[in-house]
């Protein structure tokens, strides 16, 4: 792999992972139309490194929240074993519970992945799902409450279930979770933050089992530098994507992503 290719894939992964435009849909469409490589198959280790790059982006941007979540986890465990739950939960202790609840639907989702993999090779299907993704963002933008609330356990269940739609190529994970939060009455900023924090267990869970296969997919000495640069590109573009989405959220302009997804979807339907 050349350095240019590594940077390209890193930027696409970082931007599309966090912007509500579907990273899987974009990478699959590029592969289908231009004969690009299937990262998960042809560059197994590189694919994992790209995901670690995007994981680093979330951890850096939300480092304060992540540290509070770690503290909240241990204080929550202590309260459980000491029978102190009746005294109530702190903000981040409750957020830990909400993240766990919203992540649980991903466990059975791991067994459904094989049934949707065939869709990744169907460019027109990806185009149609991108249009669906854009429509989903448009609807959530219009129906979102101006003054939303926090993420609760009940809302976390709904967000976790809606996240399952993102198994389909062309449907964004961040888009589905943010949409779920907005439709369930969560404040815009809180919905975006919860979506990004929820990506941490999602990214880790999607790649943790793959770690055991790394020994069978060693990195060639000639690929060490491109892989490292690609990982850095994914992290930097991921940070930029998170910051951009935060800005657009403050301006209430998810419609920009609607226009983009529908436009790309129509193009894929025509040329697919």
The N- to C-terminal Cα distance equals 26 Å
- Please give the number of β-strands: 0
The structural domain count equals 1
> What proportion of the residues form beta strands (DSSP E)?
under 5%
- Shape field: globular
Structural features:
mainly alpha; 272 residues
Short description:
With 272 residues, the protein is mostly helical.
Topology:
Blueprint: H1 3-18, H2 23-34, H3 39-42, H4 44-61, H5 63-82, H6 91-103, H7 106-116, H8 123-143, H9 153-162, H10 173-183, H11 188-208, H12 224-250, H13 255-271
Helix pairs in contact: 1-2, 1-4, 1-12, 2-8, 4-11, 4-12, 5-6, 6-9, 8-10, 8-13, 9-10, 10-11, 11-12
Description:
With 272 residues, the protein is mainly α. It has one domain (3-271). Helices cover 74% and strands 0% of the residues. The chain is built from 13 helices and no strands. Helix 4 runs antiparallel to helix 11 and helix 8 (123-143) runs antiparallel to helix 13. The mean pLDDT is 85.
């Amino acid at each position: 792999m050349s350095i240019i290719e590594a940077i390209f894939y890193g930027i696409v992964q970082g931007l599309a992972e966090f912007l509500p435009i579907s990273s899987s849909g974009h990478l699959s469409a590029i592969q289908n139309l231009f004969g690009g490589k299937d990262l998960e198959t042809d560059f197994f280790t590189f694919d994992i490194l790209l995901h670690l790059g995007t994981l680093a982006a979330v951890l850096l941007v939300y480092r304060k929240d992540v540290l509070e979540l770690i503290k909240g986890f241990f204080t929550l465990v202590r309260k459980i074993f000491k029978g102190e739950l009746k005294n109530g939960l702190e903000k981040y202790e409750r957020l830990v519970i909400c993240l766990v609840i919203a992540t649980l639907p991903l466990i059975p989702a791991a067994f459904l992945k094989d049934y949707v993999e065939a869709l990744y090779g169907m460019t027109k299907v990806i185009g149609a799902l991108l249009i669906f993704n854009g429509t989903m963002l448009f609807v959530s933008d219009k129906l979102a409450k101006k003054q939303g609330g926090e993420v609760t356990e009940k809302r976390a269940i709904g967000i976790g279930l809606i996240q399952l739609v993102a198994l389909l190529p062309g449907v964004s994970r961040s888009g589905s979770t943010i949409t779920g939060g907005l439709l369930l009455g969560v404040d815009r900023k809180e919905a975006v933050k919860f979506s990004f924090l929820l990506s941490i267990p999602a990214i880790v869970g999607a790649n943790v089992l793959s770690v055991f296969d790394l020994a069978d997919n060693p990195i060639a000495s000639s690929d060490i530098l491109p892989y490292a640069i690609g990982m850095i590109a994914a992290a930097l573009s991921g940070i930029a994507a998170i910051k951009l989405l935060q800005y657009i959220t403050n301006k209430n302009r998810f419609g920009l992503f609607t226009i983009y997804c529908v436009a790309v979807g129509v193009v894929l339907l025509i040329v697919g």
